[in-house]
């Protein structure tokens, strides 16, 4: 009996000892030791570079660059990028698993499903999203870069290719051309080009492409992960 009570006492002591750390571990969302959000300058100071390398802060959330996915330069030396405020966009969260299996390879059924219809309407621009395409200029003046919104109402645009007076944009299942017809620095015309990704349960990760100014041909390679 004494041995049993001693063992029970040890268990109670161990439970009391580990109760607080366990509760703290459950409340802790990440392994980071940070107690606050760092400024861009503090983040920059935290990099460790090899000898001979230099790193500079070009833009941050202060310039509206939120969750950037891609970047490219145009002939004028301006940097183009885009936001992904709407990520993650999950059309399958409320669908039962057996129903999901049937939908995965049935594009027509997805078109008629309300969850997928909502996503498709966003990708095709029938419903406005909250993401943007940004242009960063004055990159070489020694001053903070100037950011301007070139296009808005988008939904997680994955890649941008500046071309003449506009830009090709890959967004979800869609490839389209945005054009600035009145040259006010903001896109005002959208022309669908192709369905570069099938309407399936896919997460488009990256679209690689290049344009040939002489022929006008565009080479596109889309990378995606099937859920």
From TrEMBL:
Pfam families given in the database record: DUF7133 (PF23500)
Domain of life: Bacteria
Signal sequence region: 1-25
Keyword Signal: yes
Domain DUF7133, residue spans: 40-191
Protein keywords: Signal
Record's protein name: DUF7133 domain-containing protein
Species, as recorded: Salmonirosea aquatica
Source lineage: Bacteria, Pseudomonadati, Bacteroidota, Cytophagia, Cytophagales
